[in-house]
Amino acid sequence: MPDRIRLDGRVAVVTGAAGVIGTATIRLLAERGARIVAVDRKPQDLQTAVKDLPASAQALAITADVTSEDEVAEYVRTAVDKFGTIDVFYNNAGIEGDIAPITRYSLETFRKVIDVNVVQACGDRAHQERRTGMQRDRRPCELRLPRPDRQPDAERDHRRPQSRQHAGPQ
To answer: Whole-structure pTM over 0.90, yes or no?
Structure first.
């Protein structure tokens, strides 16, 4: 069965690209035709991950800390300058923190886990929006990308049956 999920020409930013999941992700995206912006804080591991991509892959390796707003702004700027846009964010960077009962878990460690695992996902998109003018979706930290195979929400929403609509927040 042919691969129907092609990403030819799309630009994908993958954070945590040097880890096991990140490396597998950049390989899959590259095999499907995406241009890769691989981001990780470990330069040697990152170079190894990018070096192992298929020969036809277009990839840019950027060493950065996803908790640094300046570094996030810089890798978003670099990606847009090189490829013209960003179509996909795969926010894979993450840390586990200490394995300990909550009574022994420091506030400093908790904040670091939240910064890496949650805040960075919003920061990437916020910087992309400022850099490219791409509009945010209604949901927090999510960008709406054009989908040629789907109608915009406004066109879909008017067709919903009246019984399924409700007055509460959506």
So the answer is: no
Taking alpha carbons only, the member of 16, 24, 76, 69 closest to residue 40 is 16
The verdict on residue 62 lying in a domain is yes
**Which residue, among 15, 9, 60, has the nearest Cα to 37 in the 3D structure?**
60
Q: Region of 16 please: left (phi>0), alpha (psi -120 to 50) or beta.
A: left
In a domain, 164, yes or no: no
Domain extent at residue 95: 11-144
Quick one: which of 69, 64, 66, 76 has its CA closest to 133?
76
How high is the mean pLDDT of the chain?
A: 79
SS3 at position 162: helix
Q: Is residue 46 part of a domain?
A: yes
CB count in 10 Å sphere of residue 75: 23
Q: What is the DSSP letter of 119?
A: I
pLDDT, tens digit, 9 for 90 and up, residues 116-159: 877 776 666 565 566 555 554 444 444 444 445 555 444 444 44
Q: How many domains does the chain have?
A: 1
Structural contact between residues 60 and 78, judged by C-beta atoms closer than 8 angstroms: yes
Which residue type sits at 25? T
CATH code for position 116: 3.40.50.720
